[in-house]
Here is the input.
Amino acid sequence: MVTSSDPLTVDCVCIGAGPAGSTTAALVAQHGWKTLLVERDPMPRFHVGESLMPETYWTLERLGVVDELRRRAFTRKQGVQFVTQQGKETRPFFFRQHDDRESSITWHVERADFDQMLFENAQRLGADCRDRTRVTDIHFGEPGEPHLLTLKPADGEPYEVRARVVVDATGQQAMIANRLGLRENYADLQKAAIWGYYRGGARMPDGEAELTTIMNTSDKDSWFWYIPMSGDTVSVGLVSDSDRMKRTRGTAEEIFQQELANCPVLQQRLEHAELVSELRVAKEFSYSTREHAGEGWVLVGDAYGFIDPIYSSGVYLALKSGELAADAIDEGFRSSDLSAGQLAKWCPDFEQGVDLIRRLVRAFYTRPFSFGGFMKEHPQHQSNLTDLLIGRVFGNEAGDIFDDMDPWIRQLLMSESVE
Ligand SMILES: Cc1cc2nc3c(=O)[nH]c(=O)nc-3n(C[C@H](O)[C@H](O)[C@H](O)COP(=O)(O)OP(=O)(O)OC[C@H]3O[C@@H](n4cnc5c(N)ncnc54)[C@H](O)[C@@H]3O)c2cc1C
Here is the structure.
């Protein structure tokens, strides 16, 4: 039963206080619109996804949180390294060698702290931020009419909110996309992940750059991430085909240990380490959405889509889509146009950038592919590749790399099938 006869009325409701929701809410509020940000969990709340891409810098700067990020003890991330299935550590991609601006050094963040910081920042910029409050229902209004949402606080009675614009930032819950049947899974990217946090794993010597390392297992059926975080903690995660994990009988711990036995480089790094958390599991997290906005609503972050964790692009795309959507919403309010066309104005360019990441993800999962092998034959693409790993995928030439990478992969596949 919904109490309160007079619904709260706002311009914009953002559902979900991950990076996407907090960014959208902060910037819509900063534009001067009455904004409500609702999060079902108590903040701070745990979340996976610690390794940032350097291009997050520009949205974080616009949000005004870069000084706060520097002040916090998050580990600085200076590059990405890949380890082949033969255990060979490839030359790291150091972002600063490519571009010496401060933005090239990014962070490995504890997501609970990072997301809390963005949530508080949305409040600072004028949004009404309510955690422990779940949106349980949305009744879409007729064109020109506000939408009606039902909110349920963890320890209170449900109440209603009227909003001209609803931003779905519910992450993998993808509330609106699921409700309207807009979600489309990538058949070839159905992966699962098992991860935990270690103390005492190998770190770079003092003063040397920390990296995100991606390690293939010896059969190349799976890979691990290795993300050194603050203190002595390292986030270590296994990613493999969902079907393969289902076929491998055993608990998450058993599967994780079996794959660890296939990854000697990681075993070495964890030789003196202790697992200090439970192992968590996520699966079938990769999907896109057929439409990204409608009359008075728009999708951002994972609710818009998620590709794969391999290049740590999730938080970046969440921040970026939040920023672009916020500006489209502001423009829509000013011009009294809250149509799908207006609210999704940014999506075609955004999709082009997302597509470059998606193509690089698919290249990684092509069995004979290796970055080392490709760079050896096409050293002229070092700069394009580093651009992609930095996240510079919007409106530049980094995509030219695929003119050579796609034929190169096709050739590898052909010579494999001949053998
Ligand atoms: C295994 C794995 C590893 C990853 N590693 C990385 C990485 O290293 N780097 C990286 O950048 N990204 C990584 N990601 C992706 C990253 O975690 C996400 O892309 C990112 O968190 C998306 O942010 P978001 O704001 O869209 O959603 P989220 O951060 O998921 O936030 C959504 C919020 O909505 C809330 N919510 C849901 N439903 C409701 C409701 N009905 N009412 C109110 N609130 C609601 C949720 O509680 C949640 O807090 C990884 C993902 C996976 C699966």
About this structure: The pocket of flavin-adenine dinucleotide is lined by residues 15-21, 38-41, 45, 47-52, 134-135, 169-173, 175, 193, 237, 282, 285, 301-303, 306, 309, 312, 314-316, 318 (CB under 6 Å).
